[in-house]
Amino acid sequence: MILLIEQDSNRYKQIVRGKVRQNLRKYISNSQLIGRQGKDLVSIPIPEIELPRFRFGENNSGVGQGEGEIGNPIGRGQPVNGSGQAGDQPGEHLLEVELTMEELAEMLGEELALPRIEPKGKHNVESDITRFTGIRKVGPEGLRHFKRTYREALKRQMASGAYDPVQPSIIPIRDDKRYRSWKIYPRPVSNAVILYMMDVSGSMTDYKKKLVRLTTFWIDTWLRANYKQLTIRYIVHDAAAQEVDADTFYHLQEDGGTRISSAYTLAQQIIQRDYNPSDWNLYTFHFSDGENSGNEDDQRCLKMLQEQILPEVNLFCYGQVRSQADYLFRNVLVKGINDEKLSTAQINEEEDIYTAIKTFLGKGL
Questions:
Q1: Contact in structure between 294 and 261 (CB atoms under 8 Å)
Q2: Which of 179, 242, 328, 356 could disulfide-pair with 290, CB 3.0 to 4.6 Å?
Q3: pLDDT in tens, 6-34
Q4: Bridge-partner residues for 135, per DSSP?
Q5: What is the pLDDT of residue 324?
């Protein structure tokens, strides 16, 4: 009975995961999902799952009961305009299921066909290492400490007078056996840094920031599946750039012009000061509506990217949210730089986030 229950439970979990994967594109573009995020779990609403079963009904005439005429209705539908008497039948319900962030990242990777990232460097992020640190009386036979076991058996026989120095025979009993004990310690392996940059000039509306927030949430989810810890730094800019905390990054509203090079200059300073590219995995993401101050600053940005930033980072991604202008900064990047570390995407609506994440992280650099 227990085995059958476990099989049913596993089958149910597979069905739930299938439902989530089937609607993953919709969940990615749903900002309410972030609000359902707990410390380690994400609560996702899915349609109620009903197991198939037979139902007995009346033998009314219809398809399958005799010959029909052309134009005869197959069945009678229910009114859907909300008029009429109150119904007595149950409606569709939503079921809240909880998934860990690891499960969600795994689904994201499988659905978008994202490759596994190979970390570089050996600094700060921790993995586990096992060290044998002591002796105990219980343990697996493969870890039996023979010298300590022999010593305990010898001490016992000498204390009891059973030891014969002429014909010594040391036979350990169960109480004599000693085993090596171990502890698990963290060991530095690799570290990852995400550097988020966002245009907060007057043209960046709340809706545009919402697109940025959703995109960065899923980027974080995926990268945390590849690195146990992430260091995240935030830069905002209009005509000048400054480093801020996460809350300011998502809520600051300025009313000035746009000079993208100011953000790239600050990003380069942070990298040079705090992160050696040979030890750190650096991921940079810049979000803007692309309305830069002019061609002079565009060329300055291209030069900085080609000569300073791209050689040092794992990946540089530029996400351009909707704008009414004709010629935007993304056009400058696409035409001016041919580098596999550069990835750009247009994010006009929530539905574009799905494609943007695949474009950004599909390279797996």
A1: no
A2: 328
A3: 555 556 555 556 666 666 666 666 655 55
A4: 180
A5: 76
Q: What is the pLDDT of residues 250-305, one digit of tens each?
A: 888 777 889 999 999 999 999 999 998 888 889 999 999 998 988 999 999 999 99
Domain boundaries, the chain: 1-23+31-48+93-112, 126-186, 189-361
Q: Is 346 helix (H, G, I), strand (E, B) or coil?
A: strand
Task: Say which CATH topology domain 189-361 has.
Answer: Rossmann fold (3.40.50)
| b/e sequence 34-62, b meaning 16+ C-beta within 10 Å | eeeeeeeebebbbeeeeeeeeeeeeeeee
State the virtual CA torsion across 159, 165, 168, 170 in degrees, nearest 10: 20
At 167-189, the pLDDT tens digits run 888 888 989 999 988 777 655 45
Is residue 224 over pLDDT 60?
yes
Distance CA 132, CA 134 (A): 6
Say if CB 235 and CB 197 are below 8 A apart: yes
**Are 220 and 193 contacting, i.e. CB atoms less than 8 angstroms apart?**
no
> Tokens for 37?
């995020």
- Run of H or E including 330: helix 329-336
* Strand residues in 200-331 grouped as ranges (E): 230-237, 241-244, 280-288, 315-321
